[in-house]
Amino acid sequence: MSCSSVEGSELSEEEQKEAEGPPEATFQAGDNAEDGSARKRNRPVRSKARRMAANIRERKRILDYNQAFNTLRIALNHDLSGKRLSKIATLQRAINRISALSVFLSSNPARNGCTHRECHRPSLQPAVA
């Protein structure tokens, strides 16, 4: 990976265009400047709309992702005097909680008859989704 590709990922598209120089520099020697500029003018309008739509979708995806983590934090009953758990710490606690519940259930079988059909299926057959 080149240094310029790393730098390019950290810069906005406008900053990348400024760093590359004027748009005329991207035309090849045999290109007609008018045809090239017409293409340049039409393309950014369409790509800007697509970029804006993609940004909106990405923002919604990130909001949903963060909301899922917040729901998981609440389910884990986390309270460290108001300090929020990191995402990795949240996942690690969720794994530990699931493991502890699994051990608890396997070591303490239900004494009363369970009404869940999943509990009464034969152990040799795979679970039906």
TrEMBL record:
The BHLH domain is annotated at 49-101
Q: State any GO BP term from the record.
A: sensory organ development
Please give the residue ranges the record annotates as the region Disordered: 1-53
- Which Gene3D superfamilies does the entry link to? Helix-loop-helix DNA-binding domain
Q: Does the UniProt entry include the keyword Transcription regulation?
A: yes
Q: Does the keyword Transcription apply?
A: yes
State the superkingdom. Eukaryota
Q: Name one Pfam family in it.
A: HLH
Report the protein name in the record: (spotted green pufferfish) hypothetical protein
**Keywords noted in UniProt:** Transcription, Transcription regulation
| InterPro entries linked to this entry | bHLH_dom, bHLH_transcription_factors, HLH_DNA-bd_sf
Q: Where is the composition biased (Basic residues)?
A: 39-51
In alphabetical order, the GO MF annotations are: DNA-binding transcription factor activity; E-box binding; protein dimerization activity
GO CC terms of this entry: nucleus
